[in-house]
Amino acid sequence: MALLDNLLTLHRVDSQVRALRGRVDSAKTYLDAQDRQLALLAKQKADLETQERQLQAVIHNLGLESQAIQARVDKLRGELNQSTNDRQYKSILNELKVLETQKDEAAKRELDEMQRAEDTKKRLEVHVATTAERMKVREVAKAKFDECVKDVGDRLAELEAQRERAALAVPERERKVFDKVADETGGESMAEITVVDLRHREFACGNCNIEVPFEVYARLSSNSDAVIQCKACTRILHLAEENRHDPDKRDKAKFEKTRKL
Question: What domains are there in the chain, each with its CATH number?
Answer without folding.
Answer: 3-168 (1.10.287.1490), 175-260 (no CATH)
